[in-house]
Every structure is written in structure tokens, then in C-alpha cells.
Design goal:
Elements (H helix, E strand, L loop, with lengths): L2 H17 L6 H8 L3 H8 L2 H26 L4 H19 L5 H8 L6 H24 L4 H21 L5 H15 L5
Amino acid sequence: MTPAARRALTAAERLFYERGIHAVGVDLIAAEAGVTKKTLYDRFGSKEQIVVEYLADRDERWRAFLAPYVDAAGPSPAARILAVFDASRAWSAEHSGRGCSMVNAHAEISDPAHPAYAIITAQKQWMLGLFTDLAGAAAPGRAERVGRGLMLLHEGALVAHGLDVFPDPIGQAREEAEALLAAAGAEW
């Protein structure tokens, strides 16, 4: 990616996250990035593609951010699950004051034909798969049910964080996840 394209994507990410995807036009992205609209269209082709790249980049960065937390938790299956909540708490404090970018994007893009829709749903499917895989190691025989429960706790916490309804929803979700794992007879 050229430096101008990187600046444009960085500006688009900030603007889309702060103001919403539909509220931000290519004129504003170009102005904020210090590039021309022609540069945007030459590199990305359309606003839809800028949205796709913004969400794909955000997902890639989240996965890279998460991996060290899970790895540092060691071999304990339950500790690895709780590490996801710890990573989410740290990520949210640093990158997501307005909640989950995928959830926010889905509020604006619910048409499966939109090219960003696949990025949004794939990210959530990946998270469900991660929780289910981790739950399979922690609570053999109950992986799907426990994985879904963990996903619901996690997603609800991200939404509550974005809405700022009460303090530390991700921390509370972590405690609820710990209780769910204990009830499922998880291996520590």
C-alpha cells in the first residue's frame, strides 16, 4: 500500500468509527488524508472497497493483538478463554471507546450483498469458532453450548462498553465467563 493509500485508510478508519460509515463521504476522507479523490478511487475503486479494507484491517489488527494474550495464558484451557476477555478489555480501552467496529458497521450494513457484509460476519464467525475451539479443550462434550455462551457474553460486553451503560462490562463478562466455565466443569 502506498503512503497516500495508507493515510487514506487510516483517515477512513478514524472517521468511519467516530461518525459512522454512511455519514462519511470520500470527499472528507480525501481531505483528512491529504490526498485527492482521484487517489482514493485509483487505489480503492469505491467507497464500498474502502469500507471493506477498513474492516479487514481492523479485524487483522484485532487478531494480531489477541494472539499474545491467548498464548501468554499458557496451557490451561479456561485461562486461555479468559485471556480473550482480558485482550478485549485492553483493546477496548485503547481502540474502541465506541464499541465493536464490526457491530457498529453491521448496524449500517445489513445487506448480505454489500461487500463488507462478508467481512463483518466472517469476523464474528471466527470469534465463535475461537470460543468453541477453546471451550472444547476446557469442557469436552459441551464445546458448542459453552462456546455460544462465551460468545454471547463477549458480544454483549462489547455493546455495553460502547454504550457506556455501566462501568467495566468486559470485566463483568469475564467474571460471568469464569462462572460459566466452572458450571460446565471446565479444566483449569
